[in-house]
Amino acid sequence: MRRMVTIAVLATLAGTIGLRADEKTAARWFAHIEALANDAMEGRNTGSPGHRRAAEYVAAQFKKSGLAPAGVDGYIQPVPFKSRRIVEAQSSLALVRDGKTEPLTLGDDATLNLRVDPASALEAPLAFVGYGLSIPERGINDFAGVNLKGAIVVYIASTPRSLPGPLQAHFGSAAERWKMYQAAGAVGTISIANPKSMDIPWARSTLARLQPSMSLADVLDEAPGQKLSVTMNPARAEKLFAGSGHTFAEMLALVDGGKPVPSFALPARLSATTTVERSIIESQNVAGVLRGTDPKLRDEYVVLSAHLDHLGIGGAVNGDSLYNGAMDNASGVAAVLEVAASLGESGVKPARSILFVAVTGEEKGLLGSSYFAAHPTVPRARIVANVNTDMFLPLFPLKLLMVLGLDESDLGGDVRAAAKAAGVTVQADPEPQRNRFVRSDQYSFIKFGIPALAMKVGYEEHTPEAAVAAKWTAERYHAPSDDLNQPIDRSAAAKYVEIVRDLAVRIANRADRPKWNDSSFFKRFSRSPSD
Ligand SMILES: [Zn+2]
Fold first, then answer.
1. How far is the CA of 91 from the centre of ligand 1 (A)?
2. Deepest in the core among 2, 269, 315, 329, taking most CB within 10 A?
3. pLDDT over 70 at 200, yes or no
C-alpha cells in the first residue's frame, strides 16, 4: 500500500509520554514498523536501495540504544550475492511422451526455481519417488526399485508423519533432499506441493517467479550437480502421471492418509530450456552489541536476530504491487530494536554480551544469516545461543508462546522461565510438518552447532485464534496486504518483547553455556574444530 507515514511516526513517538510501560513498548514497537514497512522502504528487497535505507534506520536505532558497532563497516556487514532472474519469454518446459511434445505453461503449470542455477538446456526421464526421501537411519528408502541416474526426481513435498518433527523439518528441506538425489545420480527435481500444506495459494506464489533469486557470492555451488529445479502446480500435476497407471490424486490420498506411497518411472521425459539474467549485488546485515559486564563471560555472545529483508515490488494483487512486509518481518526487527532500547534504559547489566543482528536475504533462502554464521563478526566459538524472531504474528492476546526448538536444547528451560514470569504458557510447534524450525534464520546458527530458539504468538488447533492465524496466512502472508493497515494486537507484541528481553538476559546470565539435549537430532551439527 502507498501512503505517507512520516507524520504518523513522529506523532506515535511523541505520544508515548505518560503511557504505561507496556503501552510505551507497544507504541515504540509499532513506530519502528511504521518506519520499516513504510512505502518509502519499497518492500526492503535484498540488494535494493530500500533495503539499504532500512539497514541505515536499524543502524541509527542501534546507535541510539547505546549498542557498539559490530559490523564490518560500522554497524553494517556488506553481503555479496549472485542474483538470477528468469527470462520467461526465452525459457520453456515440455513433456515429451510417445514422440509427442506437450508444452507446459510457465506460471500456470509450473515454475522454474532459480535458487538453483539451471543448465541452459536439459532433457531427462522422470521418476516419481513419493515423499522423495532416503533416510537409512530411519529405514526410509523411497528410491527402491527406481533408477534415478540421469533422471529428474518427481516428489510430493511432504514428509511421513512417522518422522519426529525436527527430522521432518530437516530432511524435508530442499538442500537435504538434493544431497539424497545427487547421491542417487539425479540431475534435477520437480517438486509438487501438497495442497493441504500450501501456505500461499498457487495463484499468488507464482507471482514471485519473475523476481530475482539469489545465492551467496562466496559459495561455489550451493546445489552441486543440480541442473533443474521445477515447482509443479498441484492442480496441474496429473499431466505428469498420464500413462503411468497411477494418478496424482491417488498418490495424494496415500500421503494424506499417512500410507506408504509407491515409487515408479513416469513414461515421459521433461525437456527444459532456460535463459537467465545473472548479476552480482550487495546487501546488508546490521549488527550491534551490548557489552556484557562479567570479566569471564563478556566475550561470549547471545545473538538476537530477525530478518530485515522482504519481497520488494512484485506482481500486483488487487492493484497493489508494493510488498511492505509489516509482519514479515518489520515486526521482528522492531521487537529486536525495542529489546535493545529497553535494555539500555533499564540499566540491566547482563554478564555475557548480547549481539543484535538484523539479517538480509532471508526470503531468498536464509542467505544473510548463512553469511553471518559463516563470517561472524565475533568469534563463532563465542556465540553461545541464537534467539530468532520471524513474523511472530501478534494477532490476538499472547497467552501461549509457540517455541520452535523447545525440546531440542536446554534453552527450553530458559524460555519456560521467561514465559512463566510473563504469565504465559509455552507450546512446542503444533504443526511440525510446516518445517518452521528450519525455515528461518535460526537454522543458519543451528548448522554450526549453536543452540537456538525461535518464537511466535501461539494458539491451540481448532480454536478461533487458529482460524485468525490461518486467515492471515491465506490472505496476507507474502501479499501486498501485509502492510501497516491491518489489525494487530499491540499488547501481545509488548508482552512478546518483554519475554524476548527477559530470555536474552537469562541466557546471558547463565552460569554454563547452553547445550543441545542428548536426544536432539540437531546435536549432530557439532561445532567445527576451527571454532
Ligand atoms: Zn517471508
1. 27
2. 329
3. yes
Are 342 and 350 in contact by the 8 Å Cβ rule? The answer is no
- Centre of ligand 1 from the C-alpha of residue 257, in Å: 30
- How many angstroms does the Cα of residue 216 sit away from the middle of ligand 1? 18
Q: Ligand 1 centre from 390 Cα, in Å?
A: 8
How remote is the CA of residue 511 from the centroid of ligand 1, in Å? 36
Which distant-in-sequence residues (6+ apart) come within 8 Å of 235 by Cβ?
195, 202
For the cut 70, the answer to whether the pLDDT of residue 433 exceeds it is no
CA distance 239 to 86: 23
Q: Find the 420 Cα to ligand 1 centroid distance in Å.
A: 29
Helix (H) or strand (E) holding 335: helix 331-346
SS3 string, 463-488, reads CHHHHHHHHHHHHHCCCCCCCCCCCC
**19 C-alpha to center of ligand 1: Å?**
32
Residue recorded with cell 538480509: 360
- CA atoms within 13 A of residue 317's CA, in its CB half-sphere: 22
Of the candidates 490, 492, 488, 414, the one whose C-alpha atom is nearest the C-alpha of residue 452 is 414
Integer Cα distance of 333 and 337 in angstroms: 6
- Distance from residue 324's CA to the centre of ligand 1 (Å): 11
String of DSSP letters for 402-446: EEETTTTBTHHHHHHHHHHHTT-EEEE-S-GGG-GGGSSTHHHHH
| β-pair partners for 134 | 141
456 C-alpha to ligand 1 centroid (Å): 14
132, 173 Cβ separation under 8 angstroms: no
Distance from the alpha carbon of residue 48 to the mean position of ligand 1, in angstroms? 16
Structure confidence by residue, pLDDT tens digits, 58-84: 999 999 999 999 999 999 999 999 999
How far does residue 359's CA lie from ligand 1's centre (Å)?
13
- Report the 3 state secondary structure along 113-140: CCCCCCCCEEEEEEEECCCCCEEHHHCE
Ligand 1 centroid distance, CA of 263 (Å): 33
Task: Give the H/E segment covering residue 57.
Answer: helix 49-64
CA of 325 to the centre of ligand 1 (A): 8
Which phi and psi (to 5°) does residue 187 adopt? -110, -15
pLDDT confidence of residue 236: 97
- Spacing, Cα 96 to ligand 1 middle (Å): 36
pLDDT tens digits, one per residue of 160-179? 888 887 788 888 888 899 99
CB-CB contact of 364 with 113 (8 Å): no
Q: Is 87 exposed, middle or buried (0-12, 13-18, 19+ CB in 10 A)?
A: exposed
Half-sphere exposure (Cβ direction) of 70: Cα atoms closer than 13 Å: 27
Alpha helices, DSSP H only, in 163-206? Answer: 165-171, 174-183, 202-205
Å from CA of 198 to ligand 1 middle: 14
